[in-house]
Write a structure and sequence with these properties.
Blueprint: H1 2-20, E1 32-34, E2 40-41, H2 45-56, E3 75-78, E4 83-87, E5 92-95, E6 100-103, H3 106-120
Antiparallel strand pairs: 1-2, 1-3, 3-4, 4-5, 5-6
């Protein structure tokens, strides 16, 4: 009985830890759109990987918080299981699927904005 209880507790811990990890994954199709979805932004695979790695890292100014902001977002990133709205002005990323947000560092915000501006002019 004790052995079954230990196995059951271990299984619950494993499932809880697996559920806590919210890693974003690139979709098979397009990744970035204008906020109104009127135009796909054709980022390179390196740019997509940089952005998705940034969203998955703790390198940003803060950690993800359990609410979204009222920012005016200009871009939308679509991952396998989430919609992320991005505000170029303040560098806030709103995960509207999971109702959380994070503000990127100035350096990371400037890097992403430069990538997006490169395609917005085309």
């Amino acid at each position: 009985m004790k052995r079954c209880l230990c196995v059951f507790i271990a299984l619950i811990i494993i499932l809880l830890c697996a559920g806590c990890e919210s890693r974003y994954k690139l979709p098979d199709g397009e990744f970035c759109y204008t906020y109104d979805n009127s135009r796909a932004i054709p980022l390179s695979s390196e740019e997509k990987c940089y952005i998705i790695d940034l969203f998955n890292s703790q390198k940003n100014d803060g950690k993800w918080v359990g609410s979204v902001t009222n920012c005016i977002c200009e871009y939308r990133f679509l991952t396998e299981d989430a919609v992320l709205n991005y505000c170029t002005d303040c560098g806030t990323v709103n995960d509207v699927t999971h109702m959380k947000s994070v503000r990127l560092s100035e350096e990371d915000k400037d890097t992403i904005n430069a990538m997006l501006d490169n395609y917005a002019r085309n």
